[in-house]
Design goal:
Largest sheet: 5 strands, parallel
Structural class: alpha/beta
Radius of gyration: 18 Å
Number of helices: 4
Number of strands: 5
CATH superfamily: HUPs
Order of helices and strands: EHEHEHEHE
Shape: globular
Organism: Actinoallomurus iriomotensis
InterPro entries: UspA (IPR006016)
Strand order of the largest sheet: 3-2-1-4-5
Strand content: 15-25%
Protein name: UspA domain-containing protein
CATH topology: Rossmann fold
């Protein structure tokens, strides 16, 4: 069984990783989606962050790649085993649904109003993913919540 874990920086992604870490899956894919993906028009930022001819967009791309790599490294270390990494750019909820087409299970964290059951426990992007995912979805509560019957 292949499981995909959505590493959503806007949510408590650590809870999704922890939910999967102790389970035996054939393949685990960590999915990170950053918004955008289109390059800025040439010279869009010229003069804003330095002298003319200096295009700061290239420097920002490097920072984004470093941050993504650090996030993947942290998630993989937390998982405690090798995983496949998938980094997409675009509208997060659309990219997650598309990427999940090859998974048997998608794991994501509730990102809405804390402590509220039902629809309010999901933000708009996660709600879209739950409604449109082409596979099973495991929703995980953020934080350290004991399983029922414990504690």
């Amino acid at each position: 069984m292949a499981v995909m874990v959505w590493i959503n920086p806007a949510a408590a992604w650590e809870s999704a990783v922890d939910a999967v870490a102790g389970m035996a899956f054939e393949e685990i894919v960590l999915l990170l989606v950053t918004e955008g993906g289109g390059a800025a028009a040439p010279d869009t930022l010229t003069g804003l962050l330095g002298p003319a001819g200096h295009e700061p967009g290239e420097a920002f791309a490097g920072v984004e790649e470093e941050q993504a790599a650090a996030l993947f490294d942290e998630a993989e270390a937390r998982m405690g085993r090798p995983v496949r990494r998938l980094w997409e750019r675009g509208v997060p909820e659309h990219e997650v649904v598309t990427a999940a087409s090859g998974a048997d299970l998608l794991v994501c964290v509730r990102d809405g109003a804390p402590g509220l059951p039902g629809p309010d426990s999901l933000g708009p992007a996660t709600r879209f993913v739950v409604d449109h995912a082409p596979c099973g979805v495991l929703l995980v509560w953020p934080g350290d919540r004991s399983p029922r019957g414990e504690g």
